[in-house]
Design a protein that fits this description.
49% helix, 140 residues, mainly alpha
Amino acid sequence: AVADGDMDAIAHVSNSLKEHWSEKEITDAVKHEEKIQSEDGGISVAYLLSEGFQRLAWERTQKNDPTFYELKDAFFLSSNPIGEAIKCPRDGELGCSFLDTLPRKYRRMCSHYLSWTWAYHVQMFRVCLAEWIARQQQNP
C-alpha cells in the first residue's frame, strides 16, 4: 500500500492494526517503509522515456537535448531546486531526492544499476534505454 501511495489501503491496514499497535507504532511503521522505499528505490525506465521527463528537461534547461551536467545544474542548483520544499522520507527534513518527487508509478525497488557519464545527452540516453528495453522484451 505504501509503495503505491494508496492512502485508502494504508488507512484500512492502520485501522486493522489499532487493536494491536499504538497510533505512534503505526505511524512509525509507515514512515519506516517510506524511508526504506526511498533508500532502495529507483526511477523507472518508463519515466525516463516519458514525455514528462523530456518536457521537464526542456523546461528547466531550455535545450532540446541537454547533457546530464546541464540537468544537474537546472534541476538542483537553480533558484528553484526540485524537491526543495518536499519533506524527505529518509531524514524528515525539507529537501528530498528527485526520486521522491516522482509519482509512485515511476518509482519502485531498484532492479538494475545503470552506469553512465554526466556528459551524455538526454536523447542519446533515452534512445539507448528504449533499445535495451526492446532487446530485453521488457515493459518499461
